[in-house]
Design a protein that fits this description.
437 residues, alpha/beta, 14 strands, binds pyridoxal-5'-phosphate
């Protein structure tokens, strides 16, 4: 199978799509044909890793990594991705917990898979590939954790000093020697501009730069596997297709769910839960798609004004009216997020992060008919202990730290403060890596 840009005709192999990240014409890569799986194709496969081996195989037919796929999958799916039942009065609802990875958010799956692929394709101990990642909090930690200690690879994390939470800062700055963490004296936009400028700057060619963007096909595809595994398990147990409610920012996680549905997995309706950044729900309600500035909310990892993966969704499904009955969207305010965290705790004894709270809210907003006709799986994208400053005051008690997070928080932090310009960044890189003579 080959891959094609949403804006172009030329096809590339999986390896080329993975290394390029974004297509030369500015579009995003998608498989040029969609495999159709029957449920029987997965018989005997229960663990997410085993489902992944079957689901991902066709995409790797054009890849030099095909023979390493089982290993890549074993490295990626090394932590549980369970569905736990919620004690609801009517209907059926479960929580798909995607937060048991190294940095306690779903991005660990995509970042881990990308790192396992990229280091095999591009890792050169004599001339390492340098992954540049600008982060507003969550992405940088997942990418640093995934590439940490991989031979022939290094990571430069750019984050806005003082504008990420303490625990996030720790997850950005506690890694091995192949990770350089730069606390930029500026905004997230400054960080992003620096990463872009560095990629484009010929004077920095002593380094081989790449990105680990969330739009990379190598992050998107592995995310389909937990939707496949969860829906298969539910279907085998009940004979019914579950619907999914997915906290959504850049639309990467939810798009993976939509793709799993297109591949033939037993998935019903898909509800996108956004925070107050409501471009997606306005678009699905018939408004024009006009990118906006993002608004800051409690669910900060979803503060996206121009969700890039919408281009893929429209390419695959068509325009808003064609999504009717398949995909819908609900926008959730900060006030509603707070109420939801409180209610989840009092009603279910469940502690939810602000992102996950948008999903439980969207689920509560469904009509009685939608809730009785369909079984729902709500997606939990991060562990609440990652956002304890918001969640603890609302539930009135401390959230126990998961083991993995406790071990990260006990490590020493190591970072350099730099000015928000390319010279400062280059100086920090040269000092650490001394790529140039
Ligand atoms: C990144 C993130 C999201 C949003 O995911 P998208 O793929 O950008 O839609 C939601 N919740 C958490 C905790 C995240 O880190």
């Amino acid at each position: 199978m080959k891959f094609r840009s949403t804006r172009g005709e030329k096809t590339v192999t999986f390896d080329e799509a993975l290394i390029q990240g974004i297509a030369g014409d500015g579009g995003l890569y998608l498989p040029d044909e969609l495999p159709a799986f029957s449920i029987e194709a997965f018989s005997g496969a229960h663990a997410t890793g085993d489902v992944a081996k079957i689901l991902l195989q066709p995409f790797f037919e054009s890849s030099t990594l095909l023979s390493a796929l089982d290993e890549i999958i074993a490295e990626t799916f090394s932590f549980p991705l369970p569905v736990t039942a919620l004690p609801v009065q009517e209907g059926s609802a479960g929580l798909l917990e995607l937060y048991h990875g190294p940095t306690a958010a779903f991005k660990d799956v995509g970042a881990g898979f990308l790192a396992a692929c990229m280091s095999r394709l591009e890792g050169e101990p004599d001339n390492p590939l340098t992954i540049l990642v600008a982060t507003s909090g969550d992405t940088g930690g997942a990418v640093a954790a995934a590439f940490n200690d991989r031979p022939g690879m290094r990571v430069v994390v750019l984050y806005p000093d003082g504008r990420v939470s303490e625990r996030q800062a720790h997850q950005l700055t506690c890694w091995g020697d192949n990770v350089l963490s730069l606390a930029v004296q500026g905004s997230f936009d400054d960080c992003q501009a620096m990463a872009k400028a560095a990629m484009a700057d010929k004077a920095l060619t002593g380094y081989r730069f790449s990105s680990a963007n969330s739009i990379n096909i190598g992050r998107l595809l592995p995310q389909s596997t937990y939707y496949a595994a969860a829906s298969l398990q539910h279907f085998r147990e009940t004979g019914r297709k579950p619907g999914f409610v997915v906290p959504t920012g850049n639309l990467g996680n939810a798009l993976a769910c939509c793709m799993a549905r297109l591949f033939g997995l037993p998935i019903g309706e898909i509800v996108l839960a956004t925070n107050a950044n409501c471009l997606i729900s306005d678009f699905l309600a018939g408004e024009e798609w006009l990118p906006r500035d993002s608004i800051e909310t409690h669910a900060s990892a979803m503060d996206v004004g121009n969700p890039s993966n919408m281009e893929r969704l429209r390419y695959l499904f068509g325009e808003a009216d064609e999504l009717n009955g398949i995909v819908s969207a609900v926008s959730v305010s900060d006030h509603e997020i707070e109420q939801e965290i409180r209610q989840n705790f009092s009603e279910f004894g469940l502690v939810t992060c602000p992102h996950t709270a948008t999903a439980t809210h969207a689920w509560r907003q469904l009509t009685d008919e939608q809730r009785s006709a369909t079984d729902w799986i709500l997606v939990a994208t991060a562990h609440p202990a990652k956002f304890e400053q918001i969640v603890e005051p609302i539930i009135g008690q401390a959230i126990p730290l998961p083991q993995e997070m406790a071990s990260i928080l006990s490590r020493d932090q190591k970072y350099e403060k730099i000015e928000p310009d390319l010279q400062s960044m280059t100086a920090a890189l040269d000092q650490r890596f001394s790529a140039k003579p």
